[in-house]
Design a protein that fits this description.
This protein is mostly helical. The protein has helices at about 45-75, 75-90, 95-120, 125-145, 150-175, 175-180.
Length: about 180
């Protein structure tokens, strides 16, 4: 199968199952001219802007999804690497990997949009934030009233000192430190 370096993705279809477009500016073998910034007014059609915004949305979505998956599986370093690799594939790969990355990114971005919509309707973030603040305030008030933190520290010191004294008595009687 030969690769056409001037391959452009077809315009997005309205069909749910059709893949989203890939980055229309990507070419396998770029030249210096490809990186030149066009003078203002040139090449600024609304269609290209929509496609670029959609590709950015997909790249951001797949970066979030892959980053969270990598973080959950192997920690922050793999999470960051997975996020970068997935975003790179979504914006530069016109093959199956790029298509899958873009579709995944669109799904994650759509899920994020739905979460924002639900939050806007029900004020979940605001209410959750207020709940956490109230719980923290009540916890501080309870601790100040019953002195749980200071009593715990005092009790821990007593237990530690008692254990140390007991260890000293055992050492004096059996000379454990001298025999080791």
């Amino acid at each position: 199968m030969s690769h056409n370096p001037d391959h452009r993705a077809p315009a997005p279809a309205d069909d749910f199952f059709s893949p989203p477009p890939c980055n229309p500016d990507y070419r396998e073998n770029n030249t210096e001219e490809d990186y030149a910034i066009p003078p203002s007014g040139e090449d600024s059609s609304a269609e290209q802007n929509v496609t670029t915004q959609r590709t950015k949305r997909q790249a951001a979505g797949v970066a979030v999804g892959a980053g969270l998956a990598g973080l959950a599986v192997s920690g922050p370093i793999l999470g960051a690497a997975a996020a970068g690799g997935a975003a790179y594939a979504a914006t530069t790969n016109s093959g199956v990997a790029g298509s899958v990355a873009r579709q995944t990114g669109e799904s994650v971005a759509s899920a994020g949009d739905k979460c924002k919509e639900i939050d806007k309707k029900h004020a979940i973030m605001k209410r959750s934030s207020q709940l956490v603040k109230t719980a923290a305030k009540k916890t501080r008030e309870f601790d100040e009233k019953h002195k749980i933190t200071s009593n715990s520290i005092r009790t821990s010191k007593k237990i530690g000192n008692s254990a140390l004294e007991g260890a000293k008595k055992v050492d004096e009687k059996h000379h454990v430190v001298d025999n080791t």
